[in-house]
Amino acid sequence: MKLIYQQVLSFFAVIAVTILLLGISFSRMTKSFMYNNRWDQLERYSDGLVEQSLTANRKTGKTAFNIKKLDNYEAFLKNQSVHFTIYQPNEKPLYPKNQETDKITSSEWKRLKNNQMIRKTDEITAENKNNNPAMLEVLKPYYYNNKLLAVIGVGLYTSEINSSLNKINRDLVKALIISLIVSMIISFFISRRLNRRINVLRDAANQVTKGNYRIRLVNQGKDEIDELTTDFNHMTENLEKSANEIQRQEERRQEFLADAAHEMRTPLTTINGILEGFKYDVIPADSRGKSLDLMMNETQRLIRLVNENLDYEKIRSNTIPLHETKFNAYDAMHQLPGQISAKASAANDEIVIDAPKNFPVYADYDRFVQIMVNISTNAIQFTKDGVITVKGFRNKEDNAAVLEISDTGIGMSNEQAQNIFERYYKADASRRSGKYGESGLGLAIVHQLVEQHGGTIEVSSELGVGTTFTITFPDENSKKQDDE
Question: pTM of the entire structure?
Answer without folding.
Answer: 0.47
